[in-house]
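Forwarding the complex inputs:
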Amino acid sequence: MLPLVFDRVSFAVNGKTIIDRVSMDITEGPRTVILGPNGAGKSVLMRLCHGLLAPTSGAITWRGAGSGRQRQAMVFQRPVMLRRSALANIAYGLKLSGVSRRERGLRARDVLEAVGLSGIADRPARVLSGGEQQRLALARAWALGPEVLFLDEPTANLDPGATRDIETLIGQIRAGGTKIVMTTHNLGQARRLGDEILFLHQGRLVERAPVDRFFTNPASAEAETFIRGELPWN
Amino acid sequence: MSEIIAAVAEASQMIARFDAAVVDIVLLSLRVSLTAVLFASLIGLPLGAVIAVGRFAGRRASIVLLNALMGLPPVVVGLFVYLMLSRAGPLGHFGILFTPAAMIVAQTILIAPIVAALSRQVIEDAWLEYREQLRSLGAGPARSALTLLWDTRFSLVTIVLAGFGRAAAEVGAVIIVGGNIDGVTRVMTTAIALETSKGDLPLALGLGIILITLVLTLNAAAYWVKEATQRRYG
Amino acid sequence: MELKRRKLLGIALGALTLVATPVARAQNFITVASTTSTEQSGLFKHILPVFRKKTGIEVRVVALGTGQALDMARRGDADVVFVHARSAEEKFIAEGYGVKRLPVMYNDFVLIGPKADPAKVAGGKDILEALRKVKSASAPFVSRGDRSGTHMAELALWKQSGIDIAADKGPWYRDTGQGMGPALNTASSMNGYILADRGTWISFRNRGDLAILVEGDKRLFNQYGVILVNPERHKHVKRGMGQAFIDWVVSPEGQRAIAGFKIGGEQLFFPNAGQEGA
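Prediction (whole assembly, three chains):
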């Protein structure tokens, strides 16, 4: 499916521009982190990538071979679990993918074990802790065997312990060959998890660079302000 | 005052000894209203789900219409159904006027909008929470509607209980289409109306006590369902 | 999860059939449109089981006012009418909706009123005189106002007493549009006068301060008739069973059953099938 190509994509709501003529291509390989302050438009950009939103102008195309939505998955900032067991939540996603009933059960158990949640397989998913639910969300996405995994601020609501668990899991998923595209406003996380940084500021893609160069020698003023930890001038 | 006390005493005796006439009337009431609420739910729940999740011209108008239909006066529904089922009317050849079937039809018409309007509200609230995740997993509108129906099942149970309570307590519709025939279409509410008009207060009061007990039990059950399942399933 | 869902569906379908089947009942019944006076007095509860035991036919009585009962039959929603307003019944037959009118039984109307009797009619034997006194005293009077046999009889009596009640009624005349029972309730709560059939009065339990004040006048005679709804007009009318009911009700056995109905030792309805000019 990859590369995913954005050609002068804009997104506006009620006359307000949220994404401003972004052109980029997301390619196989490096872990892509979309970085920027709150309100930069990161979440909207992710939804455009995943196909949940349509651009108001410009074109988004998957230039590679392969079919549509099923080969990509997304984990949201707040996990949304169905009112059924943890195992059933994973099976639900697999069912929508057309996996057979027996296969579903096996795959779901496998992935639950991989994320360390085998013990709560039959627990109602909605009574799990925030960290457990987010791990479950990751497991659900992983079980689909996606080519690309989008993550929108996946640890923004979690404590450091849970955050570490999630970051480890992302690493495992990556190791299995899945492309990672993630947003965050957390500098430390960007440094830990990114290979390349796409810096978004007020809806514009201001800078794009390999992670080391971005942090040691940012090319744009906005990036520099952000890295220093200051609030951006508007 | 002494009259009321005497009536209550006689009524309690009637209930305690399972007076045959009273038992028949109560069983018929249950049969008619339970069947009506079953059909009303088969119509109203999917309808509510479709309107909640769907996007079509006139959606807002249908929501307004459904909410308005919740306030249909039972006696008007009774009159309408009577005119339809009368031998002089379009559906007369079925010959179900003055039978429990006609009462079920009338109560179904009365309750279906209630079930539809309330379930629409509940499902739409859930849809707001689930929408992006379901789309991300690849669920289309039909699949989403079914998933939401199952996920909101506990709230839907309380709605169905509310519908049954409304059916069991109404008199305007069943008295017109049923004819209050002794042993055939006499239910609790119509019997209370009849006995009151005859000035026979003990029997009317006895049935009234049973009816109120039924309604209170239903409401308690609905509350318990909400509470218990909230704790267990989240 | 699939198995659980299938079990639930099975239970639901089972419950559905269980509930729905009794609704389709036996077809061995007729529908009789009658009046509230016959139903509420308890007459039918007494005589219908006798008929059913003999013939196996279930009689379902829908109790409305005479006017409504005849309208219901005009629409074809009844097989037999059993009411008490001769002129309305004859009109019904003349219009072609009924086959033949047979007299069945009679009872009488009585003038009910408060024991305090502000219009001073108690003990009188002349109903027309009593009505005139009620009007001149402007005492509260409750009318059924529902085109029932009782209502039509009441209007006829006002007319006979020389009063144009439609034009001359004042606030003392309460036109309630209700059945006999509710109207009696209303009269009881406002201590008013009311014309009632004896049968309903005897079985009425909420009398308050009311009592029978005028009775026995021949003009208070109240005749009941039974008519088969015309099958030529409405093809679905259960002619055989309807006729069987009519035949029984005017037969010696049926007439005996009617006479045998008593409340507190008192007979309510007096059989007179076959009586000339009834």
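Residues 118 and 159 of chain B are 7 Å apart (CA to CA).
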